[in-house]
Design a protein that fits this description.
OB fold (Dihydrolipoamide Acetyltransferase, E2P); two-stranded antiparallel ribbon; 2 helices; 17% helix; Primosome_PriB/ssb; ssDNA-bd; single-stranded DNA binding; Single stranded DNA binding protein 1
Length: 132
């Protein structure tokens, strides 16, 4: 039911305070993203010298009930965790419908014209393929 789902979500963001028996304290900060969508390209694996490889792909979230002009939004998904990274690279394909849970990461890079750019990436911590 909706109440059970609400309680499950609430438990993720609340902890027990050991000093005060029975009271709940909201965490001070949170960085969590959940996306359900279609993969826009076959994942690629990149490795920078001296660093662990990363699997990268684009995800377009599902939009329910929207009418009229729709803006297409793409999210860059990066998968660093070794087991998840390798399975994602091997089995996720363009057009697959998947659920991704992770955190937002903001960074900068210098493009090939030596211009500094900002980039937003979702760092995947969990991925589940949904068939259909």
């Amino acid at each position: 039911t909706n109440i059970c789902l609400f309680l499950q979500v609430l438990r993720q963001f609340v902890r027990h305070d050991s000093d005060m028996v029975g009271s709940l304290v909201l965490e001070r900060s949170m960085n969590r993203v959940q996306l359900l969508g279609r993969v826009g390209q076959d994942p690629i694996m990149r490795q920078v010298e001296g660093k662990n490889p990363v699997t990268i792909f684009l995800l377009q979230p599902m939009r329910c009930g929207e009418q009229g002009n729709q803006k297409t939004t793409w999210h860059r998904i990066s998968v660093f965790r070794p087991g998840l990274r390798d399975v994602t690279y091997q089995y996720v394909k363009k057009g697959a419908r998947i659920f991704v849970e992770g955190k937002i990461d903001y960074g900068e890079y210098t493009d090939k014209n030596n211009v500094r750019r900002q980039a937003t990436t979702i760092i995947a911590e969990f991925r589940k393929t949904s068939f259909g």
